Amino acid sequence: MTPADHHTAFRYALEAVSGWPLGALSRMTVTGLEHVPPSGPLILVGNHRSVLDGNVLSWAVHTVRRPRFLGKAELFRNPVLRWVFTTGGAIPVDRTGDVTAAMRAAIAVLKSGGSLVMYPEGRRLKRHEDRIPAKSGVGFLAAASGASVLPARLRGVEGFPFSRIEVTLGRPLPPPPPGKEAARDFAQAVMDAVYSL
């Protein structure tokens, strides 16, 4: 496990409060943990249907990595929640405005050898949606930082606590070359890899 990841007392407390119960109550199974590199810049990418997806993916890999997160800026408006999310390792993203500050912060995390969780579809999918187009941010971040991108498929999270949660981790993909078109194509390829798991 790399020291570049998010190791804080508060992070460990969050895992104890949310991770253990979540894993136990859902009888969570994790497949492919051997694909998670223990060090170096890494972006974990998953499908997104539940507010618990971040907790689930973080808990699934916590024995190998402790990633930070990109989260919508709306989550940071309340001062108490802002403190919780910031101290817990989240980076706010303004989805309707300038994302430069968030991208710079994410690149800094990755260039230091840390890891990051992203959901390239940009929002939680609604019940009737199977997939929506991926946004190119994951391709941009991977190209700018040299990070590998690991696809992760989450199943059953939206049914918690009444369904079993399954996390399937794929093999890391190398970063794309620089450029808008390459970033867009890469983002879609990553989500194809997620849904193929």
Q: What structural keywords apply?
A:
197 residues, alpha/beta, seven-stranded mixed β-sheet
Question: Would you write up a description of this structure?
Answer:
The longest helix has 18 residues, at 9-26. With 197 residues, the protein is α/β, with parallel strands linked by helices. The chain has six helices and seven strands. The two termini are 25 Å apart. The chain has a seven-stranded mixed beta sheet, with helices on both faces. The chain has helices spanning 9-26, 53-61, 79-87, 100-111, 137-145, 180-196, and strands spanning 29-31, 42-46, 68-72, 90-93, 115-118, 148-155, 166-169. The mean pLDDT is 92. The radius of gyration is 16 Å and the shape is globular.
Total beta-strand segments: 7
The DSSP helix count reads 6
Work out the radius of gyration: 16 Å
Estimated helix fraction: 25-40%
Q: Mind describing the biggest β-sheet?
A: 7 strands, mixed
Strand line-up of the largest beta sheet: 1-7-6-2-5-3-4
Would you list the SSEs in sequence order as H and E? HEEHEHEHEHEEH
- Low-confidence residue ranges: none
Mean pLDDT: 92
Globally, the shape reads globular
- Beta content comes to 15-25%
Structural class determined from secondary elements: alpha/beta
Distance between the termini: 25 Å
